[in-house]
Amino acid sequence: MTTKRGNAVPPLDEFGRIRAWTEGRQSQEFFDRAGVTLGIGDDAAVVTDSPGQEWLLAMDTMVEEVHFRNETMGAEDIGYKALAANVSDIAAMGGFPKFALVSVCVPPSWDAARMKRLYDGIYACAERYGVAVIGGDTTSAPTHLVVAVTLIGTVEAGRAIRRDGAKAGQFVFLTGPTGLSAGGLHGMLRNGHSEKSSLPTPSRLIQAHQRPIPSVKAGRLLLEQGWGASLNDVSDGVASEAWEIAEASGVRLRLKETQLPLSGELAAYSRDNGLDPLDFVLYGGEDYVLLGTADREYEQAMKERFRSEGIPLFIIGEVEEGLPGVFAETAAGATKPVSKRGYNHFPKG
């Protein structure tokens, strides 16, 4: 790296790099409003919060060549998504995201300038959702980049929306279409090979994969109005998240294929490439919309309020008594089991 005059810049040590990536990113006034007493620079951060609140803690790790590839994600996108995945976990509990700890293991292929772009993405997401980045850790890595984010959020005491609240007679809902992120990834990988499609991948699908939008507003609305009986964020796919709710609650979920939301872009992409869009919708991940259940008495009020807030809401099924499981009702009225699959780092076999 050189200056504009061509003079070499001395290499930075660990602490110099941390300062270069984080210093001046967030103002002291913001830290004061967020309740940060002491942020980056000591052995631990110090934060305060008001009475009547509970802490929510989430952590996600992204590994190069496992969660992202250079041909599908820019450095800024990787940073943004690393934090967004955690924001989505807090949203799924109905909480507010507040404080983040960011740890990076940096290989030689990621120089200081490239890492700065990654932090640009982290701070762009932090600014969007009001998250204070207050610390972390930095180490070297031999080959691949690793980004691990711990996110701390708050929720009103005793009110966090959990997976185990689904009951027979409730309806199942989604707060947005699914499958877009998986479709975008499929298109980018396909177009990176010699057998690529002659048609471009819709930009909405690529955007959904690179810059997913966590559903914080929807989660808060469900908590504040007391509508959310159970809730999960769609990180590993609708099928996987539905199974988690079914098993945690001891119920059976019946999804109706004709009511699953399908975006026009995903439908067109699937048709043009001879693919079944339902595979993306049910088994694709990283859409970060919310899947949940609610009592029937709230259905109309939810529809009206979500519409007024500009938040999508799709009623996609119902909760039934029975052994835990997930089933799909086809357009012809037949019932078939939905396999318990989605993204899994350690699949059986």
UniProtKB/TrEMBL annotation:
Keywords: ATP-binding, Kinase, Magnesium, Metal-binding, Nucleotide-binding, Thiamine biosynthesis, Transferase. Substrate binds at H67, E286, Y343. It comes from the Bacteria. Pathway: Cofactor biosynthesis; thiamine diphosphate biosynthesis; thiamine diphosphate from thiamine phosphate: step 1/1. Mg(2+) 2 binds at D60, D89. Belongs to the thiamine-monophosphate kinase family. This is Thiamine-monophosphate kinase. It comes from Cohnella herbarum. The lineage of its organism: Bacteria, Bacillati, Bacillota, Bacilli, Bacillales.
